[in-house]
Amino acid sequence: HAGSRRERLEISSNESATQIFFVPPHKLCQFLEEASSIFGESRCCVIAREMTKIHEEFWRGSLGEASQVFSTQQPRGEITLLIEGKANSVAEIPSDSQIEHHLKVLISNGHSLSTAVRLVAEGTSVKKKQVYALALKLSEKSIGDDEQKK
User: Fold this and answer.
1) Domain total for the chain?
2) pLDDT tens string for the chain (150 positions)?
3) Domain ends where: 83, 105, 140?
4) Residue 24 belongs to what domain range?
5) Where is the RsmI HTH domain (predicted)?
């Protein structure tokens, strides 16, 4: 089962959402070592013990720190491990000019403004509201260009 767990962890390491794992206390140390090698030692995590109960405890830090701390102490009770999602890198966020280019291409291919906005927002990490504002600016520019030609 270790191979399949490792595969699932590798898939989870690329998710941008926080990952939640229920880990038996006797396997926490091994799980943290594996997770820190896959997710990276600097990824933030929370180890919650006995959540919603009288003796609940929360430990916060990086996976590397957690691996060190819990290698010497084995917690008891129900353990829930939360690992921070993968951060979007700056390179993944398109510039305004790139967004405008995508909008122009989609509109020139016959898509309506609203459809082009929706498609660009779905295909990037940019909010629909921001794409729509750029689309309006773009359409105002093209209307202004048309009036100058007259």
Assistant:
1) 2
2) 455 788 888 888 888 888 999 999 999 999 999 999 999 999 999 999 998 888 899 999 999 999 999 999 888 999 999 999 887 654 467 788 888 888 888 888 788 888 888 888 877 778 889 999 998 888 877 765 555 555
3) 83
4) 2-83
5) 95-138
